[in-house]
Amino acid sequence: MKNGLVVLLLILPFFMFAGEEEDQIDSISGSNSITETAFKLQIPLKQLKIYLDLDLKTDSEQTLDELHISRSALKKALKNYSENRNSFYSGIILAGMLIVFISLIIVGIIIDRMKFLKHLDNYQQQRQERSEKNTIQKMDETISQNDIVAAITAIYLHELETEEESKLLLTWKRATQSPWISAAKFNMPNSMFFQERRK
Questions:
Q1: Cα angle vertex 25, ends 59, 32, to 5°?
Q2: Beta partners for 63?
Q3: Which residue, 20, 24, 66, 78, is most buried by CB atoms nearer than 10 A?
Q4: 37 in Cβ contact with 28 (< 8 Å)
Q5: What residues does each domain of the chain span?
Q6: Which residues of 154-168 are buried (b: 16+ CB within 10 A; e: fewer)?
Q7: What is the pLDDT of residues 140-155, one digit of tens each?
Q8: How far apart are CA 72 and CA 78, in angstroms?
Q9: How far is 78 from 51, CA to CA, in rounded Å?
């Protein structure tokens, strides 16, 4: 029962579309132009001319009777278009699916390579640490006792020099100053005036 229902559901659209094609052709008369016919059949005008074996430069406003096109030629053109239309759409769908899947694969590869870049960064840090350890060991091996004595002597002489410079610097003694006291010491005019009055 279920299998019969599935088969019926698959066959029913085929009969519906077949009946629809017959209705489309029955609605077309010989007085219709090629443009009107293409519109009613829902076929691009250029494709209809190709399937009817007409020159592409043919006037699109000529009627089917003027061009001597029969109903059988229209049925054949509609059948050819419907067969090619499915292959055309399937080609577009296939191309779209390929583009999507290829782009997903590329994105996956890029994400996978990002993990590799993280490991590469860790590897470079470890390599740099190893090279720093090697340079420190090489420096320890190359420094002689004379170099160490020279460095200590230079530091000692530098400390002596800075100490002597600091001894030579002049310092000022801080003391509180009052303007009245300094006026008396330096004989300001007011202080002279007051001294004369006191006498």
A1: 30
A2: 33
A3: 78
A4: yes
A5: 2-96
A6: eeeeeeeeeeeeeee
A7: 566 788 888 899 999 9
A8: 10
A9: 8
Alpha-carbon span 77 to 49, nearest angstrom: 9
pLDDT in tens, 6-56: 666 666 555 555 545 556 676 777 778 888 888 888 888 888 888 888 888
- DSSP H helices, the chain, are 2-26, 34-41, 45-51, 71-142, 145-168, 179-185, 189-198
Q: Which helix (H) or strand (E) holds 174?
A: none
Please name the residue that has the structure tokens 């509609």: 78
Question: Distance (Å, rounded) from C-alpha 196 to C-alpha 192?
Answer: 6
Closest alpha carbon to 78 in 47, 57, 55: 47
Token pair for residue 133?
């350890």
CA–CA separation, 115 and 122 (whole Å): 11
Q: How far apart are alpha carbons 67 and 73 in whole angstroms?
A: 12
